[in-house]
Amino acid sequence: MLRQTAHPTESRYEILGLFTASMIAASMIVVAVGALLPYVSKAFPAETAHISILITALLFGATLTNAVSGAATDRFGDKRVLVACGIIMGCALLASSAIANFTWLAVWFVIYGMGFAAINPVGSHAILFFFKPQERGLAMGVRQMGMPLGGVLGAIVIAIAADYYGYRGALATVGALVLIITLSAAAMYREPSQLHGTPVRAGVLLKDMLLIGRDPRLILITLTCIVLFAAQVALMGFFPWTLVHVLHTTPSFACLVFVITQFAAAAGRLGWGWASDRIFHGRRMMPLAITCVLCALAALIVADIGNLPMSALGGIAVLLGISAEGWFGVAVVAMAEVGGEEHAGSALGFGLTWVMGTGIVTPAIFQAIMQGAGIPAAWETLAVLSLCGVIPAVAAMMLMDVKRPSAESA
To answer: I need a labelling partner for 22 at 20 to 30 A (CA). Which of 3, 85, 179, 183 fits?
Structure first.
């Protein structure tokens, strides 16, 4: 295992800031894609019934390359992979803005997702290297704040640019920002020699990834994350829809409430990370188990939202954001710690492949339940599923507690 044997040449907080900035940039289109859809629908009215395929395209692309990007960070290091994924994402958006064609837009979104997959494993080695175990949860929480904050920034940029130049202008603007920010962050990051990657063959990397994938701790963490990611996708895709169709709010008001969930998610990622360090002393699965319970509670409240006063919406949005989206940073550091400094990328690649795969099927299943049994039934089903996530979380925690003493004494 890699060890930090000398003081780094730069501040670890500077490094954390660089990878957080890259996360914000990459997440703008992924989290705020809902803000783009009305403009795309206006440009392609005949495709309105299929507009949700753009969300699926982003998640499908990420699923395709999660495992590869995780192994690539182990092989080539964070810096080179950040450059590669930044170029892929930025150029994909610029290309999608060059021609007005819905099919090609979906194709370029798949390519964008393939580049976006590397954003989570990129930087994981640096955080494990520069931060002590009792600080990693908070550090990863700070970095993972970049995703909801990217959604807020993306929604603002998309709305302003699309109002003046249409959806193609918005895509070009976001694409340029992604290129500038990610490549600047990579250029400013002075990667330690210990993190330049391990020069091994692709076959060896694949073998190592499959070996890590058989670790029961990683499997159990992944199962919990699959449940929680289903809740996150439901929040991002269907909470505003529920407000419009159950409470009959305007779309703009629903978007405002959604922005509240994103600020709460950012605070949640920071808070859960801090709690996993300071309150739970590195036991990452405890906050994930608690989050499953809170997700179930939030889903039950949303299922009954038609009987609640409008004044309760702010509190509901905060609870949803903290629970359904605030957990991700803790999950990432839990997976990375299973892999260790040498194989953190492979562990993340394996786990997030299954987690992102959930996002591909969740919208269709959730929408089918809404259409067949009603909107409240869909949220009630999500509540039951969320509670099921407690079981693998507790099992993983028990396994980690067994291995913790030997790991600390090594």
So the answer is: 3
3-class state of residue 188 by DSSP: helix
pTM for the model stands at: 0.76
Question: DSSP states of 93-147 as a string?
Answer: HHHHTTS--HHHHHHHHHHHHHHHGGGTTTTHHHHHHHS-HHHHHHHHHHHHTHH
Q: What is the dotted CATH code of the domain comprising 12-409?
A: 1.20.1250.20
C-alpha to C-alpha distance for 321 and 329, rounded to whole angstroms:
13
pLDDT for residue 4 is more than 60: no
- The number of helix segments (H) and strand segments (E) in the chain equals 16, 0
More confident residue, 209 or 68: 68
- Write out the H or E segment, with its range, that includes residue 399: helix 390-409
- The CA-based angle 21-218-299, given to 5 degrees, is 70
Q: Residue 406: pLDDT above 60?
A: no
Q: Determine which helix (DSSP H) or strand (DSSP E) holds 324, and give its type and residue range.
A: none
Which residue's structure tokens are 């994402």? 89
Of 240, 182, 257, 223, the C-alpha closest to 386 is 223
DSSP annotation of 321 reads I
Per-domain boundaries in the chain: 12-409
- Is residue 251 within 8 Å of residue 244, measured between CB atoms? yes
pLDDT digits (tens, 9 = 90+) for 125-178: 778 778 877 777 778 778 888 888 898 898 888 888 888 888 899 999 999 999
C-alpha distances out from residue 27 to 31, 115, 136, Å: 6, 11, 21
Give the mean model confidence (pLDDT) for residues 333-342: 80
Hey, CA dihedral for 199, 202, 203, 208, is it positive or negative? Answer: positive
Structure-block tokens of residue 370? 């809404």
